[in-house]
Write a structure and sequence with these properties.
Elements lengths: L1 H31 L30 H17 L9 E4 L2 E5 L3 E15 L2 E11 L4 E12 L3 E11 L4 E12 L2 E11 L4 E4 L3 E4 L4 E4 L1 E4 L5 E12 L2 E11 L4 E4 L3 E4 L4 E4 L1 E5 L4 E12 L2 E11 L4 E12 L4 E11 L4 E12 L7 E14 L5 E14 L3 E11 L4 E5 L3 E4 L2 E4 L2 E7 L2 E16 L5 E14 L2 E15 L11 E14 L2 E16 L52 H6 L2
Antiparallel strand pairs: 1-3, 2-3, 3-4, 4-5, 5-6, 6-7, 7-8, 8-9, 8-10, 9-12, 10-11, 11-13, 12-13, 13-14, 14-15, 14-16, 15-18, 16-17, 17-19, 18-19, 19-20, 20-21, 21-22, 22-23, 23-24, 24-25, 25-26, 26-27, 26-28, 27-30, 28-29, 29-31, 30-31, 31-32, 32-33, 33-34, 34-35
Length: about 600
């Protein structure tokens, strides 16, 4: 029984060995057999990387080869469907040539060549197709079309189907709807939908013409970037820059480097910002500068509207008028170039530097400049300051609630508790008018409750009060004071060595005071006057001060930085107006007036 089982096992082993030999023989036989009609591709056949057009001449290929080739394509497509986008298809050529020995992987196409890669169609007079690299070299009358929006023309094209980069040379033109790009050297990347040039080019749309040494343009985003000798030409201005970004759809130019925008009316300098060439509005940063007819506006940021003709500056603002030699500073400034008007707020300061280093600094909550044209060539300006006005110059200081300067008569009017200081002299009243001559004080008119005080020391003061005063200056120094109406004086005559000889209390109708070396030298009453001369040791205490005496040295600006520190008069020291400045006509009658 055991022997019989052993014999059966040996027979099974031989049976399986025989089956294995038969299978191996079958595999070898299949490997030796080639399908009927299939031949290796030779250089004499015309073959595109994919299909060929029926209209193009074809080399005769056995039917079996075509069927086998189609089967292979279907097999490849199933395995690697992404390769479909990397194949260049020949759609048409009048004539095709191939040299198996000299250039086995190159096809030569002549006459009305038409190619396709994905959605891009390419046309030319002649071309070379490189099968191994899946690339095309096209010559003469080159044209690339993608849909109905992108057209590229040139004299020469090299297209890499693997990287999808097209290199066009000589007389290159890219057209994308209303945008045209002209250059002699253009590379176009289909993957990123981006064309760029590097040997000079021009981009044109409905509004602008841009030129530069280097540039790029994306038909998809309509965004373009330019570098080196950039120039944007618009019918109303010219923009030159080192680096610029521009969108052909929004017409917005983004300034990325030192740039100048020049028009007939003004000049803008900026290193960073936006300029809308359609609405002509600009948003500029990094201390940009707007210059117009001798005026220069600078700020950490600027907004400018060319059509409306106004600009706004924010933070660390400086507006300079080189013609009139003055300056406006603050944290906000508005300027209208059409009306030549401006105003500044937030630590606003008006600076008059016409006198050289001895400049006048004026601060108010708001400073405003308004220009008026008298229907002639002459223009006069109003400069308004309000509220809490303080001004400082080494020889003159002043405070008031509001102020107006009129260039027509060179008069500066101070309103509401105005005070003016000149060295040791103080002038005050309900209203002070200061008349200028070449930016220096010519004379001042103090109206109502006029008072002038000269400090001798902490106890003794020369004082004069009246209904109104006129103070006359020479070279910035007060030399003559005319006091009119209800004149009261408290005056200390002096010897040549400045020794006070007594105390003179007088009253009259008109008084002339004369100054020398910034001190009162003498006084002269016109008409009747009366009073008393007291020795220095017999002065009655109630006579030391006039009824309206006030010494406001504690509100006086100490320097140009102190103009920001408002110090008002103490309670009870403010003047009570003696005149009613309200309109005499009722509001109802004013409305009904024609």
């Amino acid at each position: 029984m055991l022997k019989k089982n052993k014999k059966n096992k040996q027979q099974d082993r031989h049976r399986w060995l025989l089956i294995g030999f038969l299978c191996l023989f079958g595999v070898c036989l299949v490997a030796q057999v080639r399908p009927t009609g299939q031949k290796p591709v030779t250089g004499d056949s015309i073959k595109s990387v994919a299909d060929t057009s029926k209209s193009a001449p074809k080399a005769k290929t056995p039917a079996g080869n075509k069927k086998q080739s189609d089967n292979k394509k279907q097999s490849d497509n199933k395995k690697q469907p992404e390769n479909k986008k990397t194949k260049v298809y020949l759609l048409h050529a009048d004539e095709g040539q191939a040299d198996k020995l000299a250039r086995p992987d190159v096809q030569v196409l002549i006459g009305n060549v038409k190619l396709r890669h994905d959605s891009m169609y390419m046309y030319c007079d002649s071309a070379l197709i490189f099968e191994k690299t899946n690339s095309v070299e096209a010559f003469s009358n080159v044209r690339m079309e993608q849909g109905d929006t992108l057209f590229i023309y040139g004299d020469y094209l090299y297209y890499d189907g693997m990287t999808q980069i097209a290199q066009l040379r000589e007389n290159v033109k890219m057209i994308n709807r209303n945008t045209t790009l002209l250059t002699d050297s253009l590379n176009y990347d289909r993957l990123y939908d981006l064309g760029y040039y590097f040997e000079g080019g021009t981009l044109m749309d409905e509004e602008n013409v841009l030129t530069s040494d280097w540039g790029e343009y994306s038909p998809a985003t309509k965004q373009s970037v330019f570098n080196h000798d950039v120039k944007l030409v618009n019918p109303k201005f010219v923009l030159t820059s080192d680096t610029l970004r521009y969108n052909t759809e929004s017409k917005i130019a983004v300034i990325l480097g030192p740039s100048n925008i020049v028009s007939d009316n003004n000049h803008i300098y900026s290193e960073r910002g936006f300029y809308n060439t359609m609405t002509e509005q600009a948003e500029l940063l990094d201390r940009s500068v707007l210059t117009n007819q001798g005026k220069k506006l600078v700020g950490d940021s600027l907004f400018y509207d060319r059509i409306i003709g106004y600009g706004e500056a924010f933070d660390n603002v400086k507006m300079t008028d080189s013609i009139n030699k003055n300056m406006l500073t603050g944290d906000y400034c508005f300027y209208n170039e059409l009306t030549d008007s401006a105003f500044a707020t937030k630590r606003a300061v008006a600076i008059d530097y016409s006198q050289g280093p001895d400049s006048l600094f004026m601060h108010g909550d708001t400073l405003q400049l308004v220009s008026y044209n008298l229907n002639t060539d002459s223009v006069f300006r109003l400069m308004k300051a309000y509220h809490k006005v303080r001004m400082y110059r080494t020889d003159v200081q002043g405070v008031c609630d509001s102020l107006v300067y009129n260039s027509k008569d060179s008069c500066m009017t101070m309103y509401t508790d105005p005070i003016l200081w000149n060295e040791g002299q103080q002038l005050l009243g309900e209203q002070i008018k200061i008349y200028m001559n070449d930016s220096t004080i010519d004379w001042a008119h103090i109206i109502n409750q006029a008072l002038t005080v000269e400090m001798k020391d902490s106890i003794h003061y020369n004082q004069v009060s009246g209904k109104e005063m006129k103070a006359y200056f020479i070279n910035g120094d007060m030399r003559h004071i005319e006091v009119i109406g209800n004149v009261l004086t408290a005056f200390y005559p002096e010897e040549k060595d400045s020794t006070m000889t007594g105390f003179n209390c007088l009253e009259g109708s008109v008084l002339h005071l004369y100054m020398k070396d910034k001190k009162m030298e003498k006084g002269l009453f016109i008409g009747k006057s009366n009073g008393t001369m007291y020795p220095m040791d017999q002065i009655p205490p109630d006579k030391l001060r006039l009824p309206t005496f006030a010494w406001f040295d504690y509100v006086r600006p100490l320097n140009k930085d102190d103009i920001f520190n408002w110090r008002g008069k103490r309670a009870g020291d403010t003047l009570k107006p003696t005149t009613d400045r309200r309109p005499k006509t009722e509001k109802r009658n004013l409305i009904n007036m024609k």
